Amino acid sequence: MKRYYIFLLIIILIGACKKETTSTRLVTPTFPVITLKGSALVSAGVGGTYTDPGATVFDSITNTTSPLAPTSNNVDLSTTGFYSVSFNAINVWGYRSAASRMVLVTTVSPADDISGVYHRTSNGATVNIVKVGTGAYQLDNVGGVLNNPAFVFPFFIGFTDASTFQGPPQNTPLGQLSIDNTSITRSGSTIKLKYVVHNPNFGTSVRTFIRN
Fold first, then answer.
1. Facing residues of 135 across strands?
2. Residue 115 in 3-state DSSP?
3. What is the DSSP letter of 205?
4. Cα angle 126, 127, 132; round to 5
5. Least crowded by CB within 10 Å, which of 6, 24, 48, 71?
6. Each residue of 99-157: pLDDT tens digit?
7. Which H or E run includes 2?
């Protein structure tokens, strides 16, 4: 009997000395990457047709790329203005990504073109404007900031008619940015653009740009 108790005591001591082990897995958030097919801004004429080119999604967990169809589309081809086509994706870990394309519905003639090199009247800063579709343009220095690469990034504007343009809210390296109080003056090849930039990194004054 005494040997039994000694044996039992040894078992208890061994169990007490045995350390519990736990494993911890550090998971880095991994989001699916959505890539739009075509430009982030496209245009269509009033009364015309619009078919979105779609997007692709890359999932680094499975190392696969798949086509992605829009999840919403509010484009109204009967009314001029900016509309959006949205895309959403989720991976096997439940991480979600979203992207959207702007669609400009316009009455502008396809031949109209205001692209070129503009200069801000107050400081001479250069702004390159590139046509990406009928009435649709991409700017590389929307604020006309001189000698500061942090302020150089793509921003889109669109003309709903030949004399009216908008720059709807867009995500930029400086946060959400938009423009309003817009105007355009044309005199031969000379074009003057005016607008106010809305973003905490910019003032509230009207900015003027001229293409000669």
1. none
2. coil
3. S
4. 155
5. 24
6. 999 999 999 999 999 999 999 999 999 999 999 999 999 999 999 999 999 999 999 99
7. helix 2-17
